[in-house]
Design a protein that fits this description.
By secondary structure, the protein is of the alpha+beta class. The chain is built from twelve helices and 17 strands. The strands form six sheets. The protein has a five-stranded antiparallel sheet with strand order 8-7-9-15-10. α1 crosses α5 and α8 runs antiparallel to α11. The longest helix has 24 residues. The relative contact order is 0.18.
Amino acid sequence: MLRFSTAGESHGESLVALVSGLPAGVPVDQTFLDHELWRRQQGYGRGGRMRIEKDTAHILSGVRHGKTIGSPIAMTLANRDWKNWEEILPVESGDPEKHKAVASPRPGHADLAGALKYNFPDARYILERASARESAARVACGAIAKMLLRSLGIEVASHVTCVGTAELSREVTFAEIAALAQREEVLLACVDPESEARMKAEVDIALRTGDTIGGVFEVVVHSLPPGVGTHVNWDERLDGLLAQAVMSLQAVKAVELGRGVTAARTAGSKVHDAIAYEGTGEGFTKFSREANNAGGLEGGISNGEDLVVRGYLKPISTLRRPLASVSFETREVTKAAYERSDVCVVPAAGVAAEAMVALTVARCVIEKFGGDSLHELERNYKGYCEQIKSF
């Protein structure tokens, strides 16, 4: 089974990423890996931390001569900001006078719940791990998963469909979405310039008023064959696995598969994707759909259409004009703590969600097709694709 884990804190020395279960022989492109990390740092509305960090993944194990060797892949991502925190957050006991407490919890953050859970007198250690800085390690793991999927012709990309009240105003193609990853300037990762300008205006308002703003990102998996995932057990359904994976990202409060939200208030005759049989042999099967309202998933199984997952991101909880809170020490009313933060992170969250979706799909692909080497996996995959094409 493909598994991954991360370690590290926001202002610690480094982040650590560990991926295991990949077959041997998967090409690993360091430039692509670092570009994925760069993408996560971009976007209009990012804060000062992104001017400090220049993320790159240092691979320690599991890759030799540019290919995976079947053993666990370990990576580190150095935190450049560590030099400013080395005496504040030392591993050893250090000087307690230099500790920088988070003295009042921020509404919407893990601060209060975490401090209560772990019996901490302030929220510093909660902030350090709950921070979305951790998602950089996920992106590194996801980049490795993408390399496996690309070897099979499967692509994963994301774009932003909404920031505040500004929404994407037209339908887009996968080619347009995939092209965003090559932009030199990301802004808000929207394929439509007019819609992106309206999104930028929403961020500007939040910036001027000391507020933050959320939005919606969409992740699309292209060229995934039907039959990945299963309906037979609740915890093996691909839709459930994807929902959990994307929901686990910091600040994501809802996940939508296909047109799930609007489908809930629409007649079935308008929602379900009518099936036809074209007999042309194009694509994975000769069956076709009039639309993709299901988002490429039916019964927890991929159906051959583009797999579409949306994440609904709440506004960041650290405000330059803090909300009311309570002092941990005195229990008196005060303002919530403020740490250097972003105004809008929707494009970055989309990149992190790409990683989570890629890891989830790659896990299911490996489970279905098996193989200790990429050569074996490719052989099994091609054989299955021939099977469904001749169905």
